[in-house]
Design goal:
The protein contains two helices and 36 strands. The protein folds into five domains: 39 residues, no CATH class; 90 residues, Immunoglobulins (Immunoglobulin-like), CATH 2.60.40; 97 residues, Immunoglobulin-like, CATH 2.60.40; 105 residues, Immunoglobulin-like, CATH 2.60.40.1220; 152 residues, Trefoil (Acidic Fibroblast Growth Factor, subunit A). The strands form eleven sheets. Strands 3, 4, 6, 7 and 8 form a five-stranded antiparallel beta sheet that branches. By secondary structure, it is mainly β.
Length: 513
């Protein structure tokens, strides 16, 4: 289309030419048809096509905003964007708009300050010299504005639950997703029997999980506490604190250790036996029926006292245990209870736990007498000493006042036993080794030689019978020092003839100190 300025210019040229012809030659002034002028010039005019606009789906819709995309095409687009409103087919004249630059191509805008829970219509637009074009409508509804505070809708274990497993998972489910920044141990707490227990917390949407190390305590009471300063994603705050309780099942206590190991040997006869469990023990359940120490050789129960300290029970024998490598067994029976109420039950026969040990052979804390098993001359004999006419002290099975001697047994080199007298003889300490008292040296242990006389300075070991060393059994004393191996030939004077190859047993007597 020809511009107005150009029309004026053409008109001026035609009038000047006509006036000149009239003045000079007397010509008539021609009529000027403006349409002809314009029509002639239209052959050179370029006409723009209207742009096209395409509206895409709305996304990321919230209570107050939404994103809408579009794409436009055409020449010399001077403006583009999204027009929207609560009525369909909004226009720039009756709706609101958000522009996004100029030119053809895709674009996206965010519509802000929308009303919540409201349906909107939106469409793309594009403008060039030929006018404005619109795309088709898309509609969306904003999210209702959330002003409802979050609440706990369920908890596991359930509030008031009993018999809960010791490895139960603890989860709290809310009515909506929770702000992750609020999920921390200052707001979520777990109390065990009134004392706070260390935990960790994690969040998945609307579910909070409490994590604890190890296991829940058997028979214990727990309380879940949630602070009211917990917010949802829209920063709505809980209206009140949350509380929930549950009780863990009372499981049977289990033995975790004892101070004497299974089949331990050489246990000191003064040892008290301690057994430790995995939880605190009810002292009223510990007695001679539920906890027993047995001498297995005789099948007799050892007397003693019981004490309980937390998870550990201790049995203290009334008297020192029997030495001589005596086989003992600690037996636990049903009825042992934890303070939480869990009770041990039988698993094999009628007992629930057992372990055994062996005492030391002999204790250096005591003296022992050596007694004949078979009475000589109708009366019991004790291994004693007597002086002969040559002042040599001999070992004999005497029955006079000097014969009931008590001796201390000392191990040397892991093999031999020396005998130390408890009672001084003539004011001097006597050791059954050395030379005769007449030369001022200690007495020696002697035996009668086959051809008469005495051998001195001999060392003796103890030969076990049936592989055990027990007060109730019989033993031989064997000579190790003279090149021949004989039973201890006891000088049984004044018995005539001497009684040889007697059998003897050890009996504990007084304390060394």
């Amino acid at each position: 289309m020809m511009s107005f300025q150009k029309i004026i210019e053409i008109t001026k040229s035609s009038l000047l030419a006509g006036l000149l012809c009239f003045l000079v030659f007397g010509c008539d002034i021609p009529d000027i048809d403006i349409d002809d002028v314009v029509e002639d010039d239209d052959e050179e005019e370029v006409v723009l096509d209207a742009p096209t606009a395409n509206t895409q789906v709305a996304s990321n819709v919230t209570a107050t905003s939404a994103e809408v995309s579009g794409e436009v095409s055409g020449d010399e687009i001077t403006s583009r964007g999204i027009v929207f409103g609560t009525n369909s087919a909004p226009t720039l004249e009756n709706g609101e708009s958000v522009t996004s630059g100029s030119g053809a191509g895709p674009f996206s805008v965010t519509l802000d300050d929308l009303d919540d829970d409201t349906q909107y219509f939106a469409r793309a637009f594009a403008t060039n010299a030929s006018g404005t074009s619109y795309g088709t409508d898309v509609n969306f509804t904003t999210v209702p504005l959330d002003d409802t505070p979050p609440t706990v809708v369920s908890v596991s274990p359930a509030d008031g639950a009993t018999g809960v497993s010791i490895d139960e998972s603890i989860q709290i489910t809310f009515s909506e997703d929770i702000d992750p920044g609020d999920v921390r141990t200052t707001k979520f707490k777990l109390y065990e029997n009134g004392s706070e227990r260390s935990i960790g917390v994690s969040l998945s949407g609307s579910v909070v999980t409490m994590r604890y190390s190890g296991e829940l305590a058997s028979g214990s009471s727990y309380e879940i506490r949630i602070d009211d300063a917990v917010f949802d994603l829209n920063q709505n705050k809980m209206e009140e604190e949350f509380r929930s309780t549950f009780t863990v099942e009372s499981s049977a206590p289990e033995v975790v250790s004892h101070n004497i190991s299974q089949s331990q040997t050489d246990v000191d006869i003064h040892t008290a036996v301690s057994v430790t469990f995995n939880e605190d023990i009810d002292a009223s359940s510990i007695n001679s029926t539920t906890v027993q120490l047995i001498e297995r050789n005789r099948g007799t129960q050892v007397d003693g006292t019981y004490s309980v300290s937390g998870k550990t029970i201790t049995f203290t024998p009334s008297e020192p245990l029997r030495e001589f490598a005596t086989d003992h067994a600690v037996v636990l029976y049903p009825g042992i209870r934890s303070t939480a109420g869990g009770e041990m039950v039988a698993t094999v026969d009628d007992w629930v736990y057992i372990f055994s040990f062996f005492t030391e052979d002999l204790s250096e804390d005591y003296f022992y007498s050596v007694e004949a098993v078979v009475p000589l001359n109708g009366s019991a004999k004790f291994l004693g000493i007597r002086s002969t006419s040559d002042y040599t002290v001999v070992l004999w099975n005497g029955y006079s006042n000097d014969s009931r001697k008590q001796w201390r047994f000392i191990e040397q080199n892991g093999t031999y036993i020396f005998y130390n007298r408890q009672v001084e003889n003539n004011g001097d300490g006597r050791f059954l080794e050395g030379t005769a008292p007449g030369d001022g040296n200690p007495s020696r242990l002697t035996t009668r030689a086959p051809n008469g006389g005495y051998y001195g300075g001999q060392r003796w070991n103890i030969s076990y019978v049936d592989g055990r060393f027990d007060e109730g059994r019989v033993y031989f004393r064997n000579n190790f020092n003279q090149g021949y191996f004989s039973s201890l030939n006891i000088d049984a004077e004044p018995v005539d003839p001497p009684e040889d190859h007697c059998e003897w047993k050890l009996v504990r007597r007084g304390s060394v100190n």
